[in-house]
Amino acid sequence: MIVRVLEKLKSGMERTRKYLSGRALILLYHRVADVASDPWQLAVSPQHFEEHLEFLKRRCRLVSLRDLSAALEEGRLPRRSVVVTFDDGYADNLLNAKPLLEKHDVPATVFITTGYTGEDREFWWDELDRLFMEPGVLPGTLSLQVNGNRQYWQLGDGAYYDEAAHQRDQHWRASQPDEPTTRHSLYRALWQLMHPMTDSERRLVRNELIEWAGAAGSARETHRVLAREEIIELTRSGLIDVGCHTVTHPKLSALSRESQTDEIRESKHTLEEIVDHPVTGFAYPYGLESDYTNETVSLVREAGFAYGCTAAAGVVSRHSDRYRLPRVQAQDLDGESFARVIEEWLP
Q: Structurally, what CATH architecture does the domain formed by 23-117+241-345 represent?
């Protein structure tokens, strides 16, 4: 009798130890879509996304980010927990991701950049992709007014870009050192130039680029962001939650304290007005350590958020800072390859 009691006690303690020493993984997605060009690997195809969900349902404990945050606050963490999140607020989160999330009953959080909601424009990095990575003809010289100075770039042979070259280069990634054409060099240079800019500075550059290229300023249907009514539809079933991703998606570390406060608090106010309930989650734009500061973290906490997500790769332990939660960006991998990645993070 005593032996059985001791065995049960030991078994219970072991289960408790495993529960308290658990590790969680927060996955970072951006888009669920088939796209022709994807320099920053933001898109996962619908087929692959479903394969991801099927594996996660079989092998992991899927929880909401809200529940994970609450568990961290209580000092506990279920083993092999996985959270699904999305950044930016692309319309395909509703059109392509939501049906699959509901089919497999997987909770998710979508962090929305509220300043783009309701506007007929693309995210600035998508506009750069449209102007330089799509086939077509561009003027041979680009001249831009940047920070009071006029800068010039020569495209040379890159001014003309045909479909064959586009097909050849469609798997090019901006993180790679190679630059197949002068278009790719210019894309990278402009991305680095615009990354730390304020939204008003970016708009000036954007407008000048569109006029120079003779391109349309409106958003492509394939790259548009969620409208207000679509955000409401996204959250209607209760399976998908929303969080804030600032107003204009700036590099917060490049802004003054006042501007950071405005970006953080205004996004919260706007999103709560749309969904008509408190919004407790925040994700830092770009999300690397250089993109926000300790002051930024304090401002997020002071604004009333319960947690903040970064884009620094890592697992969550019960000792993790709730305002610096690491996430692992999901790649466009088939189910088998995706499973190997997850098993490496959560052995």
A: Alpha-Beta Barrel (3.20)
